Predict the structure.
Amino acid sequence: MRSSPTAPASNLYSNTRRRTKPDGVKILSFIALIITTFLMLLPLFFMVSTSLKSHREMLRFPPSFLPESWSFGNYSEIFDTLQFGTLYKNSLLIAVVTVLGTLISSALAAYGFARYRGRGNSLWFMLLLSTMMLPYPAIMVPQFILFSKLHWIDTFLPLIVPSFFGSAYNIFLLRQFFSTLPEELFDAGRIDGCSEFRMWYTIALPLSGPALATVAIFAFIYSWNDLLTPVLYLSSSDLFTLPVGMASLTSSRFRIPPWHLLMVASVLAMIPIVTLFAIAQKQFVEGIVLTGLKS
Amino acid sequence: MLMMNKKRGRLISLWAFVLLISVVMAGCGGDKSAGDIVSGDQEGAKNAGGDKEQVTITHYTIDSPDRTFIEQLIPEFEKKHPNIKVKVEKAPYEQFDSKLQTLIAGGNSPDVTSHYGYGGFAEYYNKDMLMDLTEIMKEEGFNSSDYSIPDNLMNIYNVNGKTYGIPANIYVTLLLYNKDMFDAAELPYPPSDYEDKSWTFEKMVDNAKQMTVVSKDIAKTQYGLDFFWSERDMRPLYFGAQPYSEDTWTNGGVPSETYFDSPEVISAYQTLFDLIFKHQVSPTSEWSKSVAGQNGDPFVAGKIGMSVGGSWNLAGANDFPFKIGVAAVPWGGNDKVRSTLYVDPLFILKDSKHPKETFEWIKYLLTDEVQEKSIELSGGNPPVNTKAAEAYYKHFEGIDPEDVKKVYEGATKCGFESFNHLITHYSQINDMFINEMQPIETGHKTVEEVMPTIQKKVTEILKR
């Protein structure tokens, strides 16, 4: 005898309904979350709204919530006034290569610190960490002299090459992650005749997705926002980066800054960071799934 | 196995990509440095066989249109002087000083610049960064009157008979007023004539009282006066009180004594803070920030009747959404000084390898024709050249050129160069003033309580 298909379905439905029946606390917490989200997004909203206002409207107080007349022309104007395309391209190129350099060099060094034991191991590690305490202004002049002697001034090299020599913070972060990987995996590799380098890239790296994604985000944001280094090393306008160009908009002490254009630049500058974060977030989730493989 | 191969393939392509990019970058790099690093002498060697050795000089400036306009003046100069190439090196305002110091320390000193950053002339002079121009001026037969530069301005950058800088631009203090607010309060406009004896500080405060509306609704609140006469440490001078000893102005900016705790100086500051707390005709700094942002000016938002400040405020005049006028700074108790002058000179740096060629460029920038052209190109920079100044007075839409002229001439006559150019360690002094005066501005401390600390701290900074 065929059972009626509707009965269990309605049961299921009513069960589901019962399970998700909203309670007062949940409603309140959602309302609180929505309000907080709205408040957090408000500056972002004003950034986009100001980027679409005219120069005159931008000066008005109290500021209008939405632009009176939508000046979409601001988005093309920034490409004329600021060589925005060139700045964007330069920043992107430097950031991408810096991320690759940081990932490769930091992961290699971190792997060494995490997996090999030798005399003075912790001393070297302490020495490495101590470089984090050196503020940039302290090494600014000696580094400038070095790159000047190498004839690298007014090129991207001083901005990119240092990333291929590791960074203490990222090495530290990756080392901590590599130390948590189970020794058995590497032993298994060794038995199968795996070389040390291959263990790094076939065992350690694929298991370190979340840590590598974190380092990639840090390296990208650092390079993307860096202002002082490009200011020091670049002198030709066609090599300038986005932060240098954007700083020039507020550099005049004697003029009202074109905030609307600065907001256009900020909106556009945000895109790569948001995109990278969206990609890396997926990596985080995958990483969490992968942790099931550990010990 | 397939997975393994796939991963290896991906890894190999990643490495190949990195290598490719590095090679491309190195290629670009090599190209660029080869062209730009070449010093004038090396270029000269390349061009050997020409009449004169070719040199490249570097002009270091701020990366903003009102400074980088000089790039447009270069082609004509290079046509007139085929042996001199001019390169413009620029930095944003905040990084101007750091880059300059690094360039000098790294042996890549620019040839010509001005004190466009936080540091002023005295700081550069005391760090021994500047070249003494006296000899070169004599050799070249430089006469300031040929460039219509007033003698009193020429003397600002003279220490012990030696000249270290040649004035190029001059800003003064002026009173900018919102005509719409004056009309609404049915008040007559303030005078632009410095000889008008009826125009006093008290009269200005009276006018301000009639325009001030303090309401709970921030959109309705407006104030009559914003008084930004110079930097904080210089303001007592407006009322006739001297905060630094006289020798400061002749010895390169190192005061032997300061008088920030004297009754005259304390009373001057009291008068200023009374504008906010007693008469309530001036806004608190919190209100200004809420209306105009961190470094903004609430005058621009149409919420201030009169704003006493640097003449750069005029530059945005054509964009203001209300009618404005300019007036003289009223008499405040000092017969000699009513205005702060901000004279931007051009310096040749001590490590310049081509001072003569650099001087040639400076002279070109100071000619009547170039100074006049620069007003338009820079969007309204006031020239020091009195002939070119006539064109500057006519630059502002809706403001009577006659008023601008009277205000400028009066202010120059009874003006004193801004302390930030004349006193050593100034950026530290200024920071200290901002921090120490904060509690007075927020109403947490009185002037009498704070001034002895300021006096002590200024003395300490100057001893460094």
